[in-house]
């Protein structure tokens, strides 16, 4: 086993801790040293508390030695996104308008589950203002950069989560996903990330479309985190009944006989760039060569749906903006502010009509999925693009075109790396969508592809 510490997976860490061949203190120090060296380049990590992290690592080491661990993640360093409440740290939600507020004093369900399982929350990660961008630009933190190419964007909104794990500043991170916000940056940074069946992971405030999700370098690590995050929390009244399934068991699966759909064009009939298309088609061919049947599924969503989705996001963002005191609004990222008058101009009737159109589109999507076991799509239709670009709802909705509707339907969807763009050097992601509640099956198929794809990720230095 490598002793570098920072580049170990969660599975390797916990096995080493259990065997006594690895110390949580050594690992934690290695991760902190790695972050000190690399975070200034990528700008992904905030609210780092190294002293507390090492204190917790020493306590974890004693528990492992005494055979009294708190849970399956005891001593594992994990970060949480700025929008996930963690008691000892502030929560700015990426916006300078919130800078100066103190620790929130409470743990959201994902943070609480990590702590109960013994994980060390040693930092939080950057995000764009209010989570409204599919890119890594923030008024509070500036530009978060992609470790594969520092000139390129991470995607968003879990931008720092993806960049830090890809740079091997820790083995895993927890982000949140409203329209692709764990899957998009994971794809751009070469990671695995699951948006689970809606309600699988309790979170606050309860939402019918937003979920927390893990970002890791392997499918197995994603499943290990889901085992912990999916544990019940009565505070989320929209959460699913707890299912004690072991998501890390039976990985990977045999793909023989699976009925897979391949959908390359996204809503609005927008096609992926050639490099993305080629990588996803090659991934589908790998699964087909191993016994799955693959059929092309054309995009059947209405061409104007992207604009309708934009309107729904704008209303949500404008609501958060209007809650701010007047004197704080000028601190919000300037690129966002011109979008909000469009939301202000929408009537209640307009917004209700928008939601009705989304409901109709959900029926179309689920109808296409009905005869399939899983659907394969590109996670993003583009690859590397400049790090400083905001590309928000009114000036570039091309990034979440393949991901956002699965938040609306509630289906589980995972991204797994399937190639690297030859021009930018930025990874390309394959999205696997499953039937509702089939989170385990989605992880199993992702693990099968990971094992069959024929290449290992050449993590950037």
Can you characterise this structure?
By secondary structure, the chain is an alpha/beta fold. It has a domain at 10-229: Amidase signature (AS) domain (Amidase signature (AS) enzymes), CATH 3.90.1300.10. Helices cover 36% and strands 15% of the residues. It has helices at residues 10-19, 24-42, 50-66, 109-116, 159-166, 183-188, 219-229, 274-289, 305-323, 326-329, 340-344, 348-369, 404-409, 439-452; strands at 45-46, 77-81, 120-125, 137-138, 142-143, 145-146, 149-153, 172-177, 192-195, 211-216, 259-262, 293-296, 374-378, 413-420, 427-434. The strands form three sheets. The chain has an eleven-stranded mixed β-sheet. Helix 2 (24-42) runs antiparallel to helix 3 (50-66), helix 7 (219-229) packs antiparallel against helix 14 and helix 9 crosses helix 12 (348-369). The protein is globular, with a radius of gyration of 21 Å.
For CATH, the homologous superfamily of the domain at 10-229 is named as: Amidase signature (AS) domain
CATH topology of the domain at 10-229: Amidase signature (AS) enzymes
Unreliable residue runs: none
Number of helices: 14
Q: What structural category characterises the helix and strand content?
A: alpha/beta
Provide the residue-averaged pLDDT.
Answer: 96
Main beta-sheet annotation: 11 strands, mixed
Quick one: overall form?
globular
Percent of residues in helices comes to 25-40%
Oligomer: single chain
Pattern of helices and strands: HHEHEHEEEEEHEHEEHEHEHHHHEHEEH
Radius of gyration, whole Å: 21 Å
Question: What's the total count of β strands?
Answer: 15
Distance between the termini: 20 Å
Strands of the biggest beta sheet: in what spatial order? Answer: 1-3-2-8-10-9-14-15-13-11-12
CATH architecture of the domain at 10-229: Alpha-Beta Complex
- Just give the CATH class of the domain at 10-229: Alpha Beta
Give the DSSP E fraction (strand runs of 2 or more residues): 5-15%
Enzyme class: hydrolase
Keywords: Hydrolase
EC number: 3.5.1.4
GO molecular function: amidase activity
């Amino acid at each position: 086993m490598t002793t570098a510490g920072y580049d170990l997976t969660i599975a390797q860490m916990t096995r080493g801790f259990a065997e006594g061949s690895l110390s949580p203190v050594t690992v934690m120090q290695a991760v902190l040293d790695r972050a000190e060296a690399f975070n200034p380049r990528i700008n992904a990590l905030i609210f780092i508390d190294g002293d507390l992290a090492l204190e917790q690592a020493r306590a974890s080491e004693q528990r492992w030695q005494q055979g009294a661990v708190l849970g399956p993640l005891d001593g594992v360093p994990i970060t949480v996104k700025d929008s996930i409440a963690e008691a000892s740290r502030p929560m700015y939600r990426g916006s300078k308008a919130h800078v100066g507020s103190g620790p929130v004093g409470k743990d959201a369900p994902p943070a609480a589950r990590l702590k109960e399982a013994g994980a060390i929350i040693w930092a939080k990660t950057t995000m764009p203002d209010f989570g409204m961008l599919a890119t890594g630009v923030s008024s509070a933190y500036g530009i978060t950069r992609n470790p594969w190419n520092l000139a390129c964007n991470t995607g968003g909104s879990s931008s720092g989560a993806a960049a830090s794990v890809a740079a091997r500043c820790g083995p895993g991170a927890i982000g949140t996903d409203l329209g692709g916000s764990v899957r998009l940056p994971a794809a751009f940074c070469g990671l695995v990330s699951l948006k689970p069946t809606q309600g699988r992971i309790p979170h606050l405030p309860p939402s019918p479309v937003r979920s927390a999700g893990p970002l890791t370098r392997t499918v197995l690590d994603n499943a290990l985190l889901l085992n912990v995050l999916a544990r019940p929390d009565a505070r989320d009244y929209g959460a699913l009944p707890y299912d004690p399934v072991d998501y890390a068991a039976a990985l990977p699966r045999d793909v023989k006989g699976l009925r897979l759909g391949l959908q390359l064009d996204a809503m609005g009939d927008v096609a992926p760039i050639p490099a993305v298309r080629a990588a996803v088609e090659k991934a589908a061919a790998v699964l087909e060569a191993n016994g799955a049947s693959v059929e092309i599924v054309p995009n059947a969503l209405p061409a104007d749906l992207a604009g309708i989705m934009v309107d729904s996001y704008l209303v949500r963002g404008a609501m958060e903006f209007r809650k701010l005191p007047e004197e704080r609004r000028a601190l919000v990222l300037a690129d966002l502010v011109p979008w909000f008058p469009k939301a202000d101009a929408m009537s209640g009737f307009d917004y209700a009509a928008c939601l009705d159109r989304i409901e109709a589109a959900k029926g179309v999507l689920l109808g296409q999925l009905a005869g399939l076991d899983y659907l394969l799509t590109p996670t993003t239709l583009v690859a590397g693009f400049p790090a400083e670009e905001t590309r928000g709802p009114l000036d570039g909705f091309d990034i979440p075109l393949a991901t956002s509707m699965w938040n609306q339907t509630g289906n589980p969807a995972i991204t797994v790396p399937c190639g690297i763009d030859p021009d930018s050097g930025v990874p390309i992601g394959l999205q696997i969508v499953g039937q509702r509640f089939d989170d385990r099956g989605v992880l199993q198929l992702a693990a099968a592809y990971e094992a069959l794809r024929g290449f290992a990720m050449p993590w950037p230095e």
